[in-house]
Inverse folding.
């Protein structure tokens, strides 16, 4: 254990993994779109954002601040005028808060009025309340109680906007409105063609990759370990049947089965996990089998036979404990392969559509032409995330390997 | 020679049995989907026949429809029991009688699955065969160099890069490569094997190579590092073994020692080369799909997309047959390569 913690690769791997695990746990609470995990495919949740725009930080002096950010603008202090029949509330929005915003001569805005209920009269004008300009919207709207009124405004060129609300007496007053400027950049990692925030998807994908990778690799290596050990130590009919089954499944490609299963059932992460378990135990089996055959004929096992140790005792007290460290190394090293396999299956469109996985983000990117249109912010992050997670497990695996294979130490 | 012949016969028989078993598995797994596809086709053919039969009363029409459907069911053997359907499908698939595709069409407009599959095979062999050869060659070079300069820059790269690249999906790197080198910088074509119209003669060969370059470079750049790392360890281990030290003590020149080292690791090298070539037979579904390379993998990719079951079965059974044949050859090749493993001898 000490050797393991002292190896540089293990420490590097564990620290990346720790960071990833923290992100998996707390990330969903920190992302800018908190409901994304349940409403990833709900287009109304994302409707305000611009579609397929690069990240916020691509706006800068290198392109003359020409890709203004998408952002919320809060209303200024409301001016209230009470009358006998009702009240007039006026807000002013200062749109040019940030650098380069003026470059966009015209832009699209989304006006939102939260809460309230009943029928109100609304007037939106360019310019401040004291010097109003062109009218943008005038009309009556029904405020749905508990909902929010949404007005998309196209091609606004003014630096400020004023909104006036006429509220008949007796109606409950809605909350302060906000304006969302639909810019040419958005979010930490931009948006995809369906207006979804790529960064949020990336963070949400961590837990599925981690969960699937760890659970499936643990189960596959464990079953490979047990089957290999018992096949080697018990031999006989059990051994030869296990070897035939191994041969069959190690030759069989996994993908056709997934295709067939997804043609019958809706594909899910769990059917993938089940099939992966059915096929991937073979990756551990042969190594364990060969090693267990060796251990079985070593001196200390023969000695155990001589003093009357039963077969069960020999397997569980001598052979398995010796193989366990190998199994841990294999578990760590098989995680990247499983994550990549899931991503590949999702890329083919056979993934679980109830979850947000990196493979599905890449599938969407591929299908909707992110590669052709050079939308790097959509294609790069999920793959890099897969790579970083794979690397961290590989580093941990190599650290373990150095401990269990002391011969490797010189390298 | 007699023990070798009997061994070979046993290995071939085992391979054939395995092949039949796997075809059976495919036909069980795809049974439901394949039946559905056949039924859809029968409906289509019956509708076509009915359209040609004019001037019938409503009852005649219904009778004709049932008669036609029954005849077609018998023709396609859908009226048989489930086990017998699975069995005849196994036999058909195992003997390469794949029938006609549902939507995928060959370059010559043919719908015969066998010709579609055979058309795709050379492309896969060209791309992945070249890749396997290049990977082995370059991997060997890097491995030997890294082993001879331990802890040098190349050695460090050879130890870190396999870990990095093992966690990278090759198809994702392909997406990036396409985006950068085909769309942003239009250096390489974005898919296919030929420009349209295809040039003839040497220009055609160059055009083919130009189309192959981007997937080939991507694959080689990523896959080179695993064999390099293995060869580095193999050579490194052998270089410090007793017989090499003895040879050096004897005063043999380094070139002769290198010869001894290579002779010692020859079986391991042969396994790597042959397994690499063997894998190249099946191609890669996702990489070929991304690069639009019309090999077996690319064919499978589009067959999945269009859920074309006969094509899926055709690709699978051809890949399985090639794979198993390769494994049998590999097994027998050991017998020649490594005098320490005499399979035909005392087993």
């Amino acid at each position: 254990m000490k050797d393991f913690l002292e190896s540089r690769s293990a420490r590097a791997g564990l620290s990346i993994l720790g960071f990833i695990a923290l992100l998996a746990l707390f990330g969903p609470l920190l992302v800018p779109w908190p409901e994304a995990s349940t409403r990833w495919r709900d287009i109304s949740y994302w409707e305000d954002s611009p579609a397929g725009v690069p990240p916020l930080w691509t706006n800068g002096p290198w392109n003359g601040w020409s890709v203004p950010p998408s952002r919320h603008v809060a209303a200024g202090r409301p001016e209230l005028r009470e009358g006998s029949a009702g009240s007039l509330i006026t807000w002013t929005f200062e749109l040019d808060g940030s650098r380069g915003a003026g470059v966009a001569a015209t832009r699209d805005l989304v006006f939102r009025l939260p809460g309230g209920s009943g029928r109100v009269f609304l007037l939106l004008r360019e310019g401040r309340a004291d010097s109003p300009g062109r009218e943008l919207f005038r009309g009556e709207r029904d405020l749905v109680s508990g909902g929010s009124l949404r007005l998309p405004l196209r091609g606004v060129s003014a630096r400020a906007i004023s909104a006036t609300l006429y509220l008949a007496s007796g109606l409950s007053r809605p909350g302060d409105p906000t304006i969302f400027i639909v810019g040419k950049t958005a979010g930490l990692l931009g948006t995809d063609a369906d207006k979804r925030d790529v960064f949020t998807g990336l963070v949400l994908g961590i837990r599925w990759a981690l969960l699937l990778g760890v659970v499936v690799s643990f189960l596959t290596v464990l079953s490979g370990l047990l089957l290999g050990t018992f096949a080697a130590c018990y031999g006989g009919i059990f051994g030869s049947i296990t070897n035939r089954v191994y041969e069959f499944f190690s030759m069989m490609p996994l993908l056709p089965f997934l295709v067939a299963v997804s043609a019958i059932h809706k594909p899910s992460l769990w059917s993938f996990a089940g099939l992966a378990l059915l096929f991937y135990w073979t990756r551990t089996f042969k190594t364990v089998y060969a090693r267990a055959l060796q251990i079985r004929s070593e001196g200390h096992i023969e000695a155990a036979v001589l003093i009357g140790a039963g077969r069960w005792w020999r397997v569980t007290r001598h052979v398995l404990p010796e193989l366990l460290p190998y199994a841990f190394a294999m578990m760590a090293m098989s995680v990247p392969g499983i994550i990549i396999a899931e991503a590949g299956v999702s890329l083919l469109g056979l993934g679980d559509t109830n979850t947000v996985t990196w493979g599905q983000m890449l599938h969407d990117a591929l299908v909707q032409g992110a590669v052709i249109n050079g939308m790097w912010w959509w294609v790069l992050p999920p793959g890099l995330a897969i790579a970083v997670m794979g690397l961290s497990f590989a580093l941990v695996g190599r650290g373990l390997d150095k401990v269990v294979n002391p011969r490797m130490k010189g390298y | 020679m007699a023990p070798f012949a009997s061994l070979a016969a046993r290995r071939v028989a085992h391979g054939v049995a395995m092949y039949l078993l796997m075809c059976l598995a495919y036909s069980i797994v795809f049974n439901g989907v394949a039946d559905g596809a056949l039924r859809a086709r029968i409906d289509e053919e019956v509708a076509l026949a009915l359209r040609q039969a004019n001037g019938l009363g409503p009852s005649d029409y219904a009778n004709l429809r049932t008669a036609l459907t029954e005849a077609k069911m018998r023709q396609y053997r859908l009226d048989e029991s489930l086990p017998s359907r699975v069995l005849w499908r196994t036999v058909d698939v195992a003997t390469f009688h794949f029938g006609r595709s549902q939507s995928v069409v060959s370059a010559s407009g043919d719908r015969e699955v066998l010709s579609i599959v055979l058309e795709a095979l050379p492309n896969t062999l060209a791309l992945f065969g070249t890749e396997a050869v290049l990977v082995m060659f370059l991997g060997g070079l890097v491995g030997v160099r890294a082993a001879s300069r331990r802890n040098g820059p190349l050695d460090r790269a050879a130890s870190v890069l396999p870990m990095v690249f093992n966690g990278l999906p090759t198809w994702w790197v392909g997406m990036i490569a396409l985006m950068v080198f085909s769309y942003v910088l239009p250096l390489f074509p974005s898919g296919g094997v030929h420009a349209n119209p295809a040039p003839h003669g040497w220009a055609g060969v160059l055009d083919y190579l130009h189309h192959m370059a981007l997937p080939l470079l991507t694959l080689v750049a990523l896959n080179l590092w695993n064999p390099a790392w293995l060869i580095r360890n193999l050579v490194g281990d052998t270089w410090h073994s007793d017989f090499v030290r003895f040879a050096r003590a004897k005063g043999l020149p380094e070139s002769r020692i290198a010869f001894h080292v290579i002779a010692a690791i020859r079986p391991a090298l042969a396994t790597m080369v042959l397994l690499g070539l063997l894998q190249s037979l099946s191609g890669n579904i996702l990489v070929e799909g991304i690069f639009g390379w019309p090999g077996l993998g690319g064919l499978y990719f589009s067959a999945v997309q269009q859920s074309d079951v006969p094509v899926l079965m055709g690709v699978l059974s051809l890949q399985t047959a090639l794979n198993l044949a390769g494994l049998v050859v590999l097994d027998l090749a050991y017998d020649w390569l490594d005098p320490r493993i005499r399979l035909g001898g005392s087993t």
